[in-house]
């Protein structure tokens, strides 16, 4: 039997690495580490292998459709892709009046459009496999259809197909907006709406799609913020601490496991109560 695989984008470091390690270990998954940084990817693969799971690094700019198609092809060659975690994301902050169009477009392309590229490429393969299985399992008519008659379509029911799962990483700021982040907040709100549409379109193939909205998480992305600003943010968090990649990874584990089989189209806030 082919090995069970999860694609995790942006898993060279930060939240993505935390997710990759957690689901590899706890859900017995092999990981396709997707990133643009060779050095961090190599280190992530080493860490996953140290857990006794298999992993490959696939360099891919998720905002590039050709890169994505190659990456997804390699992932399906590596094993049976069951889970996709769209985590790669960037910020290019500036006040709206000063923000340049290139920075608006870059953030939308990496944080939002990339998820559409990946979900489209992965779901196309999942659906093709599901259809082939349904057709193979469909009872054959005793007599062939009359000349010119349309052959009966194979019947689709979600329970025919193995459960597949998409988890997209949004942000708590999608809910409330944020100064200096017109591009980022728009991209992250778009991720939630798009995930709900994907959930509706794909449910008939037993594909669940959900989001997570992290709050303020300690990673290289937030490490570059001034200490004063970090403390100001922490003061607003009811649970009075920054989150850790592990906090997000635990929620991803839930949405990637059979414990969430009947959950699709939701967005789960993992933010220590921030912006309740
Ligand atoms: N850290 C937070 O407080 C926080 C809060 C809410 C949401 N998020 C979201 O969580 C996700 C991970 O954030 P993080 O804090 O770990 O960030 P990070 O900057 O530490 O890691 C992001 C990873 O994505 C990779 N990446 C960037 N552009 C890419 C591209 N075009 N193609 C492939 N990979 C690319 C980077 O190389 C890096 O390894 C992001 O989507 C971010 O928006 C983070």
Report what the structure shows.
The model has no long low-confidence stretch (mean pLDDT 95). The protein has a single domain (4-133, 161-215, 245-270), classed as Rossmann fold (3-Layer(aba) Sandwich), CATH 3.40.50. It has nine helices and seven strands; from the N terminus they run βαβαβαβαβααβαααβ. With 276 residues, it is an alpha/beta fold. It has a seven-stranded parallel sheet with strand order 3-2-1-4-5-6-7, with helices on both faces. Helix 4 packs parallel to helix 6 (182-202). The structure holds nicotinamide-adenine-dinucleotide (NAD). Nicotinamide-adenine-dinucleotide is lined by residues 9-10, 12-16, 35-37, 40, 60-63, 87-90, 110, 169, 171, 214, 216-217, 219-222.
CATH class: Alpha Beta
CATH superfamily: NAD(P)-binding Rossmann-like Domain
Low-confidence stretches: none
What separation lies between the terminal Cα atoms?
Answer: 45 Å
Main beta sheet: strand number and arrangement?
7 strands, parallel
CATH topology: Rossmann fold
Form type? globular
Order of helices and strands: EHEHEHEHEHHEHHHE
Give the tally of structural domains. Answer: 1
- List the ions, cofactors and other small molecules found in this model: nicotinamide-adenine-dinucleotide
Helix content: 40-55%
Report the total helices.
9
CATH architecture label name = 3-Layer(aba) Sandwich
Q: Find the count of extended strands (DSSP E, 2+ residues).
A: 7
Strand order of the largest sheet: 3-2-1-4-5-6-7
Attribute tags:
Rossmann fold; 9 helices; 7-stranded parallel beta sheet; 276 residues; 7 strands; binds nicotinamide-adenine-dinucleotide; 15% strand; alpha/beta; globular
